[in-house]
Design a protein that fits this description.
Layout: H1 5-15, E1 28-29, E2 33-38, H2 52-72, E3 78-89, E4 97-102, H3 106-119, E5 121-132, E6 135-148
Length: about 150
């Protein structure tokens, strides 16, 4: 069951009001990979480049969305939280950007769902990247925890 990402994003903005201000108007989701296209203008800092806090927020949410969507599409309603993250700012974001996160394949999503079903909770390690002008500008390495409701 593929999630309607427009409806999911609308709901998400009611849960995390900050998202209304970041200029995110769509999520591109294919079942194992998520991309979040984002305009620079509402996320700019005093130097005219991408604000690190915006990049951190969008990256954190992107990993949360991937984890949530993988489980939701397998019939599992879970509370998902980020338990640990490490950020690396590699290059300045100088234009509109996209945040990307993915699993290797559907087997990874199925394994995550199986762990949640068996144990009631599971961890997922993800690498989320902010890409601008075909260059990785920021990388988040995070551990997400899903707890079955």
């Amino acid at each position: 069951m593929q999630t309607n990402t427009a409806d999911f994003l609308s709901w998400l903005k009611t849960q995390i009001p900050l998202l209304e201000h970041l200029g995110i108007d769509r999520l591109d989701w294919n079942g194992t990979a998520l991309e979040v296209p984002t305009p620079l203008a509402p996320n700019v800092n005093d130097k005219g480049t991408g604000f690190g806090g915006s990049q951190a927020a969008i990256s954190t949410v992107a990993g949360w969305c991937l984890t949530t969507l993988c489980l939701k599409e397998r019939g599992l309603e879970c509370d998902v939280v980020i338990a640990d993250s490490h950020l690396q700012y590699l290059k300045p974001v100088t234009a509109d950007f996209v945040t990307r996160v993915s699993l290797a394949d559907t087997a990874d999503a199925d394994a995550l769902a199986a762990r949640v079903s068996e144990r009631g909770r599971a961890k997922l390690e993800l690498v989320v990247e902010v890409v601008c002008n075909d260059q990785v500008c920021m990388r988040l390495q995070g551990v997400y925890v899903a707890i079955r409701r």
